UniProtKB/TrEMBL annotation:
This is Phosphoribosyl 1,2-cyclic phosphate phosphodiesterase. GO terms for molecular function: phosphoribosyl 1,2-cyclic phosphate phosphodiesterase activity. Residues 67-215 form the Metallo-beta-lactamase domain. It holds the Pfam family Lactamase_B_2. SUPFAM superfamilies: Metallo-hydrolase/oxidoreductase. Keywords: Hydrolase. Its EC number is 3.1.4.55. The keyword Hydrolase applies. It is an enzyme of class 3 (hydrolase).
Length: 269
């Protein structure tokens, strides 16, 4: 399984779209791994997780094949993860020769928003609701949505993805995982865990995690016996509010065996 992280920022991006803070100024000067677009991931080129407003920019940056995915799974309806107005660009008025109907999966709110936004073009999309703790076969992979602690008015999901005996936990957006999610994961092995580190050193672990919560989650995984010696734990979805550059994040996380995501990071298991 091949996973490409297309973005690694929280909702506002880094540098943040309208921000003049010190961190954003430094990020502009440094460029490279300090430029973070909104999060999304491409798995094996045929399945995409989330559809942020930066998707068009990701297609320009990464080349045409980036937009040839057949399956789209959505974590929740915050705008940095779900921008259905641009999904509508995959219809005959706006695109030619783009392949079969796109399969879109998510919670009831995702399904509802798709039905509203794509109302006149529904024949170009297959939209299916997902339930937590149910495993679905999607694009040659087994996908299980798990409950997150994130958006109280909808069932936000994180996703457990399996293929050929390899596994990836796509673990954001969420605060410290609900107990039922830990209980489900306790019976699995995780090769790659990608975790929410929005808050950096800010003392907040609900809705989004911080560095301490990411470290605690890794420790809990170790205690549950779900990691092995080659498992990778990766922190992502960083907010400019935490005031930390890529280099700062590496100093805080790498000694604990946690890698720091960046735009374009590729993982193969
Ligand atoms: Zn987000
Ligand atoms: Zn800023
Ligand atoms: Zn969110």
């Amino acid at each position: 399984m091949k996973i490409r992280l297309l973005g690694s920022a929280a909702a506002e991006g880094t540098p943040a779209i309208f921000c003049r803070c010190e961190l954003c100024q430094k990020a502009k000067e440094l460029g490279g791994k300090d430029i973070r677009t909104r999060t999304s991931a491409l798995v094996d080129d045929n399945l995409k997780i989330d559809f942020p407003p930066d998707t068009y920019m990701h297609v320009l940056r990464d080349g045409g094949r980036m937009s040839e995915f057949e399956h789209l799974i959505i974590t929740h309806t915050h705008h940095d993860h779900f921008y259905p107005e641009d999904i509508r660009m995959r219809t005959p008025d706006f695109a030619k020769d783009y392949g079969d109907a796109l399969n879109i999966y998510g919670n009831e709110n995702v399904v509802q928003r798709c039905r509203e936004t794509l109302a006149n073009e529904m024949e170009h999309f297959n939209i299916a609701p997902l339930q937590a703790f149910t495993t679905y076969e999607i694009g040659g992979k087994l996908i299980t949505p798990l409950p997150a602690d994130h958006k109280p008015d909808e069932d936000s999901f994180i996703y457990f993805i399996e293929k050929d005996g390899k596994t990836c936990l796509y673990g954001h957006d969420t605060g410290v995982f609900p107990e039922e999610t830990f209980n489900w994961l306790a019976k699995r092995v995780i090769d790659i865990a990608i975790l929410d580190c929005t808050n950096g050193l800010i003392d907040r672990k609900a809705i989004h995690m911080n560095i301490e919560a990411v470290k605690d989650t890794k420790a809990k995984f170790t205690e549950l016996g779900v990691l092995h010696e080659n498992s990778k734990v990766i922190a992502t979805h960083f907010s400019h509010n935490c005031g930390l550059l890529h280099e700062d994040l590496e100093k805080l996380l790498v000694p604990s065996g946690i890698d720091v995501a960046y735009d374009g990071m590729e993982l193969t298991i």
